[in-house]
Design a protein that fits this description.
- By secondary structure, the chain is mainly α.
- Helices cover 73% and strands 8% of the residues.
- The protein has a 3-stranded antiparallel β-sheet with strand order 1-3-2.
- A hairpin with a 7-residue loop joins strand 2 and strand 3.
- It comes from Halospina denitrificans.
- One of its GO terms (biological process) is response to stress.
- InterPro entries: HTH_MarR-typ, MarR/SlyA-like, WH-like_DNA-bd_sf, WH_DNA-bd_sf.
Length: 154
């Protein structure tokens, strides 16, 4: 029963997190999706390409393009030409984006603290360890699926 419930609980938690964070960021004109894009760019290192960022975030490129267009319109990020590949653009937080992400992170941290209230560090560590193992399994399944698809098409 627990194994059947697992994916639904994870999806429900993810939806709830997005909804609550969207509410907290609304007055700043940023959604959870835009915040997570900025965080991934910040943590992934300045100057990543769109393709690298899409892989890092595990989202499709067209979805990322819309997010980046919005962030660029808000002057939070900028796309710069890539010296090694003229077709590619490197993504950078603007100075405004750098200072803005601190404000966004403070709000996200406040929500995170509320959601993790009464959860011990040990419980959280166990949860994250289990999630990492599940993600490793998902990566393995994804690779096997891709290999199976390519061998069937080749």
């Amino acid at each position: 029963m627990m194994r059947r419930q697992f994916p639904f609980s994870v999806a429900r938690l993810a939806r709830r997190w997005r909804k609550l964070l969207d509410e907290r960021l609304k007055d700043l004109g940023v959604t959870q999706a835009r915040w997570s894009t900025m965080v991934a760019l910040h943590r992934g290192g300045e100057g990543v390409t769109q393709r690298e960022l899409a892989e890092l975030m595990s989202i499709e490129n067209p979805t990322l393009v819309r997010l980046l267009d919005n962030l660029e319109a808000q002057k939070l990020i900028e796309r710069r030409p890539c010296e090694q590949d003229r077709r590619a653009r490197r993504l950078h937080l603007t100075p405004r984006g750098e200072s803005f992400i601190e404000q966004l992170d403070a709000r996200a941290e406040g929500l995170r603290d509320q959601l993790l209230k009464d959860i011990t560090d040990r419980e959280l560590e166990t949860c994250l360890d289990v999630f990492d193992r599940i993600l490793d399994n998902a990566d393995k399944v994804g690779r096997e699926s891709a290999e199976s698809t390519s061998s069937n098409n080749g």
